[in-house]
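Quick one:
INPUT:
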């Protein structure tokens, strides 16, 4: 099994390195193409007005391409130019912070996997419901074990599997649940602060209201300690709206 491994936290992130080690230990052929710097919440951004530069990371027990660009840049560049062997699967993660609900639109992690799917490669996005992990070896090992269980050939074309681990040890983690994503949006606000010169700047904050989260959705189950997996298919067409518009235009 040939893997293209990427992320949005950067090539030196704890989650990516844990997945790399676990895959190597399992005998998988892993090729890394990941951002040099953190690219969280950049979504599906692509670099069009600046060139992409690549830096090789050659360390004891690790090798990979670092790209000065976005997660989607990494997948595009890797699949079209950098890699000698076409991967069977694009895996993005393990991300710091869960990607549930509307986060899948903001997430560079999910977008990198999505780009792989759009280019015809099986794709998996992996996230952890905590922002400062120090060791994700257990979660990485669990993820690698899942790879042979997932019926890749039976999934619809251009499907992305979105996998989330709770912020628990694997001993305390509850079994995997296959579920839909929550439809709840964030309630955002900006903290207004001042720099040393007295000029204002703004820092985004927000919450996903717990009372609005439907039972059985990814955010609900993850909070309860389950691993969650949600198949994503990026067809945004509102078919009911097409009918409504046709009726309004007498078509």
């Amino acid at each position: 099994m040939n893997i293209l491994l990427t992320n949005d936290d950067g090539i030196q992130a704890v989650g990516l390195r844990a997945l790399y080690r676990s895959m190597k230990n399992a005998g998988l052929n892993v090729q890394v193409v990941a951002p040099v710097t953190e690219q969280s919440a950049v979504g599906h951004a692509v670099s069009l007005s600046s060139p992409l530069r690549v830096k090789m990371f050659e360390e004891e027990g690790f090798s990979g391409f670092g790209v000065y660009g976005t997660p989607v840049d990494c997948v595009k560049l890797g699949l079209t130019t950098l890699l000698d062997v076409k991967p069977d699967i694009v895996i993005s993660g393990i991300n710091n912070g869960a990607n549930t609900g509307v986060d899948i639109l903001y997430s560079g992690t999910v977008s990198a996997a999505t780009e792989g799917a759009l280019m015809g490669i099986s794709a998996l996005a992996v996230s952890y419901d905590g922002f400062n992990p120090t060791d994700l070896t257990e979660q990485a090992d669990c993820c690698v074990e899942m790879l042979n269980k997932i019926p890749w050939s039976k999934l619809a074309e251009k499907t992305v599997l979105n996998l989330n681990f709770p912020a628990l040890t694997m001993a305390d983690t509850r079994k995997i649940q296959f579920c839909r994503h929550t439809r709840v949006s964030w309630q955002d606000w900006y903290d207004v602060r001042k720099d040393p010169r007295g000029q204002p700047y703004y820092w985004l904050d927000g919450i996903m209201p717990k009372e609005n989260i439907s039972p059985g959705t990814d955010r609900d189950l993850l909070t309860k300690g389950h691993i969650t997996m949600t198949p994503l298919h990026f067809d945004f067409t509102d078919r009911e709206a097409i009918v409504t518009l046709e009726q309004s235009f007498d078509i």
